Amino acid sequence: MVPLDTPLEIATCRLLEVAVPLLEPFRISGGAMLVRRSLVVEVTDASGAVGYGESAPFEEPFYSEETLSSAAACIVQHLFPRIAGRTFPGLEAAAGALGKAKDAPYVAKLKALTPGKLLDLLHSAEKRGKKAA
After folding, report:
1. pLDDT by residue (tens digit) across 103-123?
2. Coil, strand or helix: which one is 114?
3. How many Cα atoms within 13 Å fall on the side-chain side of residue 33?
4. How far, in whole angstroms, is CA 103 from its chain's centroid?
5. What is the pTM of this model?
6. N or C, which terminus of the chain has less Cβ within 10 Å?
7. Domains, the chain, ranges and CATH?
């Protein structure tokens, strides 16, 4: 298990969009969905280890005001700048930097970059036998 005070140097952050064809249409009163689009966050540390997170709002505001495009904009404009290219003394400090994004719109979909997702990055580095910094 990686200690939570392991230094974490975030080299890059990347947002990917995936589209998964559904085996059966997802039907609701507003129509049918044949493909489920989602956002995947890829965070790479200085050693080359990679951690992933996901944000999966709907394309249209069915259940909340958030959409795929608004979540993507929030992640790129409000989250990535808080951690990309920075070194943190540990997971708590990195999570604190993300926690300051509470003033950003669409906070519910910021789950793509939770402390747990950054912990995934630390574990990835450990599996590769490298430090996270």
Report:
1. 555 444 445 555 566 666 666
2. coil
3. 16
4. 17
5. 0.76
6. N
7. 8-127 (3.30.390.10)
